[in-house]
Amino acid sequence: MVGQMTSQLAQVQPVCVAIGGRAGVGRSTLVDALAGRLAGLGPLTVGELPPSNDPTANDRVRAPDAYGRDVPIDIVVHMILRSPQDSDRAAIRMHRGRGIPVLGVLARADTTPECWAVAERCTELPLLPVGLDRNRGWLGLDELVDCLSAGIAEILAGRADRELAQLDRWALEGTERDRLERLLAGPDALRLRMTGAKNWADTTDTVEGALAAAARWRVLANTAPQPADAERARNWHRRHVARAVQLGAGQLGAGRGEGEVG
Fold it and tell me: If you average pLDDT over each of 36-40, 89-93, 159-163, 248-252, which comes out highest?
């Protein structure tokens, strides 16, 4: 049981962000830009979907570390040039039908006059104008990264919660409860709780803020009408408590360092 639990504490499955759109819309360029900007936000891969206007194409993502195997898609960024075509609409319907969230991008916004007005005319999905200007660099990329970071954080936290919930059940039901509980309190479990922390921890960047968030989740855990909601709230309570401990240890270490220098 302990060996199985230790294996369970391994890194959660990476989030897959897939970039789609018609041929020539700039999918590869956006993949390269997002791969660099999203690096360090958690375990994830950014890949490219085949052109949506290729009748022989499938919906398998092409990612640098994924050749030869299927990669489950978690978020789709669909790029549209000027206005959506039938192939764009079909691709968007397909992803939504599979329960995959789709973010829309108006491609080459730097060369599109009145790009926001063009984006607003799209009825299929909201479009964020994004473009690469030679002199000014990327336009709209920061906003796209912010949107993706929020989604990535939610997915990673949910996966970590499910792993930790399973470990909690084993600790309650197993015959090696003491050893299991020590593992749950150890560094591997802490790392799992901190999965995606760079995405969600900005709102709790102080010990006080983390403890306040933990208290709010504890209240929700005690009042949630559904067991699944209560379990999720308990996991977020633990996550923010762990965040407070992490921040407190950092402050203590900094204080000791200052004393030694003085």
Answer: 89-93
Q: Would you say residue 4 lies in a domain?
A: no
Contact indicator for 5, 62 with CB cutoff of 8 Å: no
**pLDDT tens readout for residues 185-202:** 666 666 676 666 666 666
Are 27 and 54 within 8 A, CB to CB?
no
What's the CATH number where 132 sits?
3.40.50.300
Kindly give, in sequence order, each residue whose CB lies less than 8 Å from that of residue 20, ignoring residues fewer than 6 positions away. 27, 48, 49, 52, 76, 77, 78, 79, 91, 95
Is the per-residue pLDDT at 172 higher than 80?
no
140 and 203 both lie in a single domain: no
Whole-angstrom distance, CA of residue 252 vs CA of residue 262: 16
Taking only the tens place, the pLDDT of each residue in 230-251 is 877 887 887 788 788 878 876 6
Domain-located, residue 69: yes
Taking the C-alpha atoms of residue 141 and residue 35, their distance in angstroms, rounded to an integer, is 12
The answer on 137 and 211 residing in a single domain is no
Specify the pairing of strand 44-48 against strand 15-21. Answer: parallel
Q: In terms of residue numbers, what domain contains 229?
A: 176-261
In this structure, the answer to whether residues 187 and 64 fall within a common structural domain is no
| CB distance 137 to 113 below 8 Å | no
pLDDT in tens, 73-92: 999 999 999 889 999 999 99
Structural domain total, the chain: 2
Q: Say which residue the tokens 């997915």 belong to.
A: 155
Q: How far is CA 7 from the centre of its chain?
A: 22
Give CA–CA dist 46/61, Å, rounded.
9
Co-location of 66 and 145 in the same domain: yes
Residues 141 and 184 in one domain: no
